[in-house]
Amino acid sequence: MRTPSSSAATPSTLCAMLALQDQMNTRVNPQWREQHYPWHRAIWTEAAELLEHYGWKWWKKQTPDLLQIQLELVDIWHFVLSEHLEKYPKGGNADHYTALATALVEQWNAPAPAAQDFRETVEAMVLQVLSKNTLPLPLFRAAMQQVDFSFDNLYRQYIGKNVLNLFRQEHGYQQGTYQKEWHGKEDNLHLAEILEQAIATPETLQAEVYAALKARYPR
User: What separation in angstroms does the CA of 195 have from each of 3, 51, 80?
Assistant: First the structure.
């Protein structure tokens, strides 16, 4: 399925993602805001995995794996949203999400640093995260642009990954009984195939992805 090419963040799409992230975090721990989880640690750890998929070893030939790079960017985005959501009252409502989404759009559209190598952009992201415990959105936007990953594609893949996270929780992820690999492939790769084949609209994408995961998962 052809994905839109827009890189513009909008309050409506951000509202939808914020609400989904809040719901997922609450499912894992209803008091998640009070735990002050180290989002910065999760971000820099994912960033290290991101560079592994892009390639950084000068002593061997490496080809960037764009699919895995995009998946890692989506994982980072989950923690970025969580970090900002933590600042809002427990049980956020539509007004809270709208206010936060509007503020994030303003941050997203701020000037980005001068273009540089993708690896240097990722390292700049990590330095900011480690020194300030927050990820500047223009740096994240710059990293996305350097691997031709639009905001619309981020939105679509975020929705898919959120559904996968829900599916994991409902199939024993916290209890350690969930099978992450099926038929020789990790669930992330199954998700990528499902999203590529999906014909749903944004409003029905969640239901279609969940149904497809359920059909594939070993019984």
Answer: 10, 24, 22
| Tens-binned pLDDT, residue by residue, of the chain (219 aa) | 334 345 678 888 899 899 999 989 998 899 999 999 999 999 999 999 999 999 999 999 999 999 889 989 999 999 999 999 998 766 567 778 888 999 999 999 998 877 789 999 999 999 999 998 889 999 999 999 999 999 989 998 999 999 999 899 899 998 899 999 998 999 988 998 898 888 767 678 888 999 999 999 987
Tokens, residue 142? 């710059």
Rounded Cα distance between 80 and 39, Å, is: 7
Q: What CATH architecture applies to the domain 11-216?
A: Orthogonal Bundle (1.10)
Q: Running DSSP on this structure, what letter comes out for residue 107?
A: H
Nearest 5°: phi and psi at 202?
Answer: -55, -30
Structure tokens at 81: 């949203």
Element (H, E) at 108: helix 94-108
Residue type at position 35: Q
Query: Could you count the other beta carbons within 10 Å of the beta carbon of residue 197?
Result: 10
Amino acid at 181: E
Torsion angles phi and psi, residue 185, rounded to 5: -135, 145
Q: Six-digit token pair at 97?
A: 């999400």
Sorted by where each begins, the domain ranges of the chain are 11-216
Closest CA to 42 of 118, 134, 107: 134
